[in-house]
Amino acid sequence: MATITAALVKDLRESTGAGMMDCKAALTETGGDIEAAVDWLRKKGLSKAAKKSGRVAAEGLVAALVKDNAGVVVEVNSETDFVARNEDFQTLVRNIGQVALASGASDAEKLSTQAYPGGGTVAEAITNAIASIGENLTLRRSGALKVASGAVARYVHTQISDGLGKIAVVVALESKGDKDALSTLARQIAMHVASANPLALDASGLNAATLEREKALLAEKNAGKPANVLEKIVESGLKTYYKEVVLLDQLSNHPDHGGKTIAQTLKESEGRVGAPIKIAGFLRYALGEGIEKATSDFAAEVAAAVKG
C-alpha cells in the first residue's frame, strides 16, 4: 500500500480545491495515484453537488461586462456572503460573464450549455465549483443587450472586483452620434438606473397586472366620488406613478442632468452628441432580489454542529 504523505495531500488539495480530509481519503482509495484521486474527487463532488442543490442560494455576485456595442449582466448565487470574497468564485462569475458576452446567450438556460474556458460547459464548471467551494451555487439569470450603432455602458454598485458587485446595470443607447459622448451618457443613465430601479423603459413596457393593481388602488382610495371625477383622478394618479417607475419619465438623479427627466436629458444631449438618441434597453440585476431567504438561529446551528 502506498504511503500517503502530507506533500501528496497538499498537491491534490491545491490542484482540486477540495478539503484536506477528502484529499486524504481520495489518495487512500486510489493508492496514492494523483490522477485517479482527482477523478475520485470529481465523482464525489458530483454527489456533493446533488446533495447541496436543495439549499437556498441567495448570496453571491452579479456581473456586468461590456465589449464594443454589446453588454451582459449575469447573477450567480451562493449560500453565504463569504463566497463572494473567494477569488475562485469571482473568477467563475467573471468567466461566465465573458462566455455570455462572447456567445450572446440571453438567458441562463442557454448560457449553461455554452463552452466554459478550459473545457466542459458552464453548467459543469458550476458543478465542479460546488465540489471545491463546498456550497450550493446556481446560475440564476443572464441578460444581453446589443446595438448596431451607438454605445453600451455598465455600472456596478458596491463593486468588490472589476465588474462584480451587488447591483449591476447595463444601458444600451442607439445613435449615430459621437461614441465617447454616448458612452459617458450611457454610464450616467446606468448609475441612475442602479439607484432609481425603474420597472420599465416606458409606460407600454409595464406589466398589465401591475397597472391594474395600481388603478384599483387609486380607485379604492377615492371610492364614492362620481365616475367622471374618479376617471380623471385615476388618470392623474397613473401619470404620477409613471414618474416613479418608468425610466424615461423619472427625474434623473445624476448631478450632470440638472434635475431633468431621462427623456429630457436624452433630447438635450442630442445636440452635444450630434444625432438623435434612443434607449434601446437596460438591464438591472440586484443580488438575490425575489429570492426567499431562509432565516436561521446561528446559536442553534453551532450547537448542532458541536453535537455532530
Walk me through the structure.
The chain is an alpha+beta fold and 308 residues long. It folds into three domains: 6-52, Helicase, Ruva Protein, domain 3, CATH 1.10.8; 59-196 and 274-286, Tetrahydropterin Synthase, Chain A (2-Layer Sandwich); 207-244, no CATH class. It has helices at residues 6-16, 20-29, 34-52, 87-103, 108-112, 122-133, 179-196, 208-221, 227-245, 262-273, 298-307; strands at residues 59-67, 70-78, 138-146, 150-157, 164-165, 167-174, 278-286. The model is unreliable at 46-53 and 301-308 (pLDDT under 50). The protein has a four-stranded antiparallel sheet. Strands 4-6-7 form a three-stranded antiparallel sheet, covered by helices on one side. Helix content is 48%, strand content 18%. It contains eleven helices and seven strands.
Question: What is the total domain count?
Answer: 3
Number of strands: 7
User: What would you say the CATH architecture of the largest domain is?
Assistant: 2-Layer Sandwich
Strand order of the largest sheet: 3-2-1-5
Report the helical percentage.
40-55%
Radius of gyration: 25 Å
CATH superfamily of the largest domain: Elongation factor Ts, dimerisation domain
Low-confidence stretches: 46-53, 301-308
Number of helices: 11
What gap, in angstroms, lies between the N and C termini?
32 Å
Structural class of the secondary elements? alpha+beta
Q: What is the strand content?
A: 15-25%
Structural shape: elongated
Largest sheet, in brief, is: 4 strands, antiparallel
Provide the CATH topology of the largest domain: Tetrahydropterin Synthase, Chain A
- Give the helices and strands as they follow along the chain: HHHEEHHHEEEEHHHHEH
The CATH class of the largest domain is: Alpha Beta
The average pLDDT score comes to: 86
